Amino acid sequence: MALDLAQLLAVSVYRAFDIDADGRILAGTDESGSVQLAEITPDGRQIPLTRLAGACTGRYLAGQRAVIVSHDDGGNERRQLSLLRLPLPDGRPAELADLVPLVADPRFIHTLADVQPGRICYLTNRRDGVAFDAVIRSLADGSERTITIGDRAIDEAQVSPDGRWLALSVPSAALANSGQILLLDLAGDGGTVTAVTPADELAMNGRLHWLPGSDGLVITSGHEREFTGVARYELAAGSWTWLVTDEAHDLAGWLSPDGRHLLVERNDDGASVLSLHEAATGQRLRDVPLPAAGCVTGGPLPEPCWSPDSRAVALSVSAAELPGDVIVVPAGPGTPRQLTSSARALGGAPAARPEPHQIPAAGGELVPCLVYRSAEPADPALSGSAVLVVHGGPEAQAKRGFDPYVQALAAAGHTVLVPNVRGSTGYGKRWYCADDGPRRMDSVADLAAIHRYLPKLGVDPARAALWGGSYGGYMVLAGLAFQPDLWAAGVDIVGISSLVTFLENTSAYRRAYREREYGTLAADREFLHAASPLTRIDQVRAPLFIIHGANDPRVPLSEAEQIHAALASRAQECELLVYGDEGHGLAKRANRADAVPKAVAFLARHLAA
User: Per-residue DSSP letters for 78-131?
Assistant: First the structure.
């Protein structure tokens, strides 16, 4: 029995946003068509909490039976923060009018960063629409204190338990994929700033966790390392102690509120390998089994969250055969409990599972790639065809979670290759920096290397197509424009057609962030123009299918419209679907149910034998 496309697109997923001291899970589920909040009780009952027009997330409000709801308008990513008191007064899920505005100004973004009894901390660009400041808000009287770091943005902020300190992660002013950890003394005028890591170091730093005594931090850091590890920083001594490291894998850590336990994830080629450690020494206590070989971080998955009493940690788990479920892992003896069962929607049909490959590429490099093949393809005419699905970012990773698009393509009969081309995270600093600035085209060249590898997989190279979203959409367009003899078709979802116009028209708050990765308009315009698919539009010969959201704040709709118009004027086959209630991707099931079958049918027409 093969997986059916409609069945795949109807699968509901579950995510753990928070857990309270009574063991209740604040979950997200898209059963209603977009991700809404629900509460999962310790006995497994699910209580729907919201019914908003678009997707939302949330956190429990410490010390109260209430939830802070984060929501936007039509995917525009200008998040607002509202209060939802529990239990629901009349038992029905809350609509927008039922929420109490907490932090609201639809012109700007407000991202919840930290929740503590009596106060919250959020990040906002309301000062100038560009830089993100941290705001500490009293829940008693609504008073606020705003923390700015010059013209630099703040990516992460955590207030110490005693309220004395604010730990910040700020992006590097010049380096892509790099951040600095700063420590701000909130006593007095709060003017004392201590640099925990150097400003000019190439290193990812984040996942800041305060020790319960407010005398130190546990940080996931690439400070002076090729791969990220988990370290403790002591405030008084200004010293580092590495708790858990690995010389070949990135690690990430989450400290329990009582400071006793540390959950550690090892990123093993896109799979999460979990273990519990003693926080004081880093000593491994035990491994944490997962219900399937998949991942607990990355993409849409929220970060693991500890209960306030430190007795358990809630995880969002996804794997090829497990669309998305919530499990609870006890800190002490006991086995993890799976609270939801998303796989039931697959009806027992076998999912395509990833086969890891290392594909030779230019410069003696090996490109990590996951290959998916269905044991029961629906269409024999597609046997021997291939679709490369390229992830966005580019500083991201294709992990071993459930992807309905990948499963749909494999179920149709394609061999699906999901590469982590140079520039991807998860494989150390050298790899994620390998496409920065003028090396942009080296990552595009990786597509050609993968194409050369296709015969080893029993695939006909003449029947290969590209599929990708966001930066992956740029890679689709670049492949068609710079390698026109290799690709038979392309599907571009919210992709960049011109690096120049993209940087000119993206939201102001994203421009500096993206220029650190791609190059600046002031200094690198010539290169950006040369590396843009639109510049080589005359070379594009393969048919193209484009999907875009009208409210996209990252890659403006104009990126899709201009390449569609250019191809249409040349009588080149190109179809454009625009969804008026979507932003950077397709967040609503109804829109996915409309767009994806059309895109799959488009590829079937062009790749069938």
Answer: --EEEEEESS-TTSSPB-GGGSEEEE--TTS-EEEEEEETTEEEEEE-TTTSSS
